[in-house]
Amino acid sequence: MEKVDREKFMVEIWKQYNATKDIEFLAKACEEAPFFGQKEMAFEALNQVEILEKAYVRASNLSGGQQQRVGIARALSQKPKVMLADEPVASLDPITSRVVMSYLKKINTELGITTIVNLHFLDLAKEFGDRLIGLRDGKLVFDGNVNDVSDEDFENIYGRSIKSSDLIGDD
Asked: Three-state secondary structure along the chain?
């Protein structure tokens, strides 16, 4: 069996509160490491999420959506095979959430990177996902195509009726 370098195999995208570290990571690549292709990889990753113009902007001056896109760029710059996103839109407005989710979908479909996204918004899961895995109390309760999931399945996953707060809605 082939040995896998786990650091290059899988990366994680965290909620936007880690944006400062993500920006520092990319800034180092952009400013301090102009050799070995690191600068080019950082710029390419920022360009893929259409935020290249923010390469040298301080994290505190970026919006929540921009910070999350920097996190995605950081993950992309590591050339992973698998990308994990833990509630990447939890604190974003509906429009920005869809923008971030569209980048994650694009990464999967256009770059061929397996993308696993943990979401609590049912409508986003259905809109952007292909496969839905539902866990309840640590047990698998649904595993299938998102087109096959019903409100009854969601209620089984949540163990209760679906609430409006389970949907991000439109803005």
From this structure: CCCCCHHHHEEEECCHHHHHHHHHHHHHHHHHCCCCCHHHHHHHHHHHCCCHHHCCCCHHHCCHHHHHHHHHHHHHHCCCCEEEEECCCCCCCHHHHHHHHHHHHHHHHHHCCEEEEECCCHHHHHHHCCEEEEEECCEEEEEEEHHHCCHHHHHHHHCCCCCHHHCCCCC
Strand partners, 136: 139
DSSP β-ladder status, 131-136 and 139-145: antiparallel
pLDDT in tens, the chain (171 residues): 444 455 556 666 755 545 555 555 565 555 544 455 677 777 888 888 888 888 778 777 888 888 888 888 888 887 889 999 988 888 889 999 999 999 999 999 999 999 999 998 889 999 999 999 999 999 999 999 999 999 899 999 989 998 888 888 765
